[in-house]
Amino acid sequence: MRARRALIIGAGPAGLATAVLLRRAGLETRVHEGAPGPRTGGSALTLWPNALTALESVGVAAAVLARSAPSAGLAMRTAGGDTLRYTSPDLLERCGGTGRALLRADLLDALYGAYGAEEVRFGDRCAAVGEEHGVVVARFDDGREEEGDLLIGADGIRSRVRASLFGGGDLRYSGYAVSRGVASVAEPGHPALLSLGAGRQFGLFPLPNGRMYWFAAFAAPERRTVGSTGHLPFLLERFGDWHDPVPRVLRATDPADVSVTGIHDRRPLRHWGTGAVTLVGDAAHPSAPAMGQGTCQAFEDAVVLARHLAGTDDVPGALRAYAARRRRRAHSVTVQSHWMGRMGQWRHPLLCGVRDGLIGAMPQSAQLRGLRAMFAFDAA
Fold first, then answer.
1. Is residue 202 within 8 Å of 241, Cβ to Cβ?
2. Are residues 40 and 46 in contact, defined by beta-carbon separation less than 8 angstroms?
3. Model pLDDT, residue 168
4. Could you tell me what percentage of the chain is helix, strand and coil, using 3-state DSSP and rounding each to the nearest 5?
């Protein structure tokens, strides 16, 4: 019997993890990526325990652990350095474990190692998808078509697969931009840190080899976000008087390595697909980065999707079951991330004082319950 063919649009973390797991479940996989070759740029990202559990199923957890660094707890501070909340590594372990940071290129390299970069069809920009008589069709910008038994849209927040299914007009700007970079600064024992100011946020995570991943969030009009060229002086003007090591980290960053992104998300969808077509990752549930869960939720999608497709001939039924299992949790992250990002942009001193007071006053038991719920993922 011919193996079912799965067309996967997008070779980012969501698409590659899905391809590895579907192939292991017995499906023939074809991964199509619009970029001309493997992506080697990008900054860094954080993975939390739920992502690491999912990556055990993908088979790359060991490679990711070897290329990442753990944080020494989780902290929130004011711009002046006052600690609003600190969660020790021991407490985080009781919630499932600590977060880890690594270069995005290193994560993709681990996933390419599991799937095979040579098997990805680069330069295939999907224009639209369709389905007729149980056959799905991906149409590419150069006029070619590819047929399969199911199709997975893993092509990110501006997904063309999603646009083919539901239209693309629901992208919403969150009111702020985020700069990201990697600094040549060693801070042994540094926690995963988020510091809050008036309309600004700054995050720090340790990386291997004496480096730090950082991000800076600031209010910006949608079409007037500052480009990466000459961006460090802009950041030093806004964060140069913040607590140590924020100014030092910025000064230790190569300006050419700074990226700037306007933050968008989408309102949750009621359905993630139709027939034998579905979505994973940011194509299904893009969220603001306020909770650091975007890539984590994408890996959960891949595991659950493969579990439902394994051993069944009812592809549409399996895809509906997958979406039903994942939708509530993923959409909760989207909603929470949206409002946390908005709250981080409060500027009025009274509102900032209320925000900081609420963070400091939250009972530790409530915080730990929230972390346990976020970090818990059953990959069985």
1. no
2. no
3. 80
4. 40, 25, 35
**How far, in Å, CA of 155 to CA of 29, rounded?**
16
Coil, strand or helix at 339: helix
Please say if the pLDDT value at position 227 is more than 80: no
In a 13 Å sphere around the CA of 47, the CA atoms on its Cβ side amount to 30
Ranges 15-24, 147-156, 161-170, 274-283: which has the least confidence? 161-170
Question: What pLDDT, in 10s, does the model give residues 263-288?
Answer: 999 888 999 999 999 999 999 999 99
Backbone φ, ψ for residue 271 (5° rounding):
-135, 145
Find tokens 């980012």 and name the residue: 12
**Are 193 and 82 contacting, i.e. CB atoms less than 8 angstroms apart?**
no
Asked if residue 15 lies in contact with residue 154, where contact means CB atoms within 8 angstroms, the answer is yes
DSSP H/E element including 112: helix 104-115
CB atoms < 10 A from the CB of 34, how many?
17
Q: Tell me the backbone φ, ψ of residue 116, rounded to 5 degrees.
A: 110, 100
